[in-house]
Amino acid sequence: MFVSLSLTSALARELTMTANNIANANTAGFKGERLTFDALLVGQGDNETEFVVSKASFLDEKQGAVTFTGNKLDVALQGKGWFSYRTAEGQVVYGRDGRFNVDTQGNLVTLNGDRVLDDGGGDITFPPDTAAIAVISKDGTISADGNGNIAKIGIFALPQLQSFERIGAGRLMPPESSKGKIEATIDTTTQVLQGAIESSNVQPVLEMTRLIDMQRAYERSNKLMDGEDDLRRKTLQKIGRPV
User: Fold this and answer.
1) Rounded to an integer, what distance in angstroms lies between the CA atom of residue 169 and that of residue 99?
2) Distances (CA, A) of 135 to 68, 143, 198
3) How confident is the model at residue 40 (pLDDT cuts 50, 70, 90)?
């Protein structure tokens, strides 16, 4: 029963993770998440029992497909770098969603209102007389007609990426429990592609197939526990009967 319970617990966690991948299949720049399993041996010799444990999850860093939109404020990343955003709460987070806009104060922001940061960690703000964005170069430099170069979009490499925490909308932040602050570094190898967005790297058909397989395994594991429970109940009933 406890072996089946360990499997059921691990499968429940993976079901939740896979469902989240499917829900974000259309989220720009989203990276899928995977769970790793391992065996835990308890006891020795004939009393040795093998349990299932889910040790950790990891981020799938595979590049998502690039879709061209023609919007000058849409940018896709080609490489392993990450954009940096400042949330409304003042947190610095990272993501790959390059669907940008300019708010009423002239700040470059994401669709959910996070401010896009430059390569120095500051807000990117356009002068009031900016007429139109002209070019966003491959290194992230933004230039506008009549204003020349305005700012350079920050593209960062994230050391210890797998330890970063998800906070929704495909965004990541450094873990609070890490020893010392994890500092992002400038990424000079990733290129910016203007007029395009990077799609999620989740493949819906494969995720749905995985989800079905896990649901079946989850049901089989539950049946094993139910069978063991019924056997124990019947045993106790027979033991309790007067002879």
Assistant:
1) 12
2) 15, 5, 18
3) low
Angle, helix 2-23 to helix 204-240, in steps of 10 degrees: 150
Are residues 48 and 141 part of one domain?
A: no
CB crowding 17-54: b at 16 or more within 10 Å, else e: bbebbeebbebbbbbbbebeeeeeeeeeeeeeeebbeb
pLDDT at 123 (0 to 100): 96
- What is the span of the domain harbouring residue 150? 66-198
Structure tokens at 13: 């966690």
Structural domain tally of the chain? 2
Measured CA to CA in angstroms, residue 37 lies from 14, 54, 135, 178 at distances of 10, 5, 47, 23
Task: Give the residue, 157 or 9, on which the prediction is more confident.
Answer: 157
Q: Is residue 157 included in any domain, yes or no?
A: yes
Distance CA 196, CA 99 (A): 9
Q: Is residue 206 in a domain?
A: no
Q: What is the pLDDT of residues 82-136, one digit of tens each?
A: 999 999 999 999 999 999 999 999 999 999 999 999 999 999 999 888 877 879 9
Radius of gyration of the chain (CA): 25
CB atoms within 10 A of CB 134: 16
Q: What mean pLDDT value characterizes the chain?
A: 87
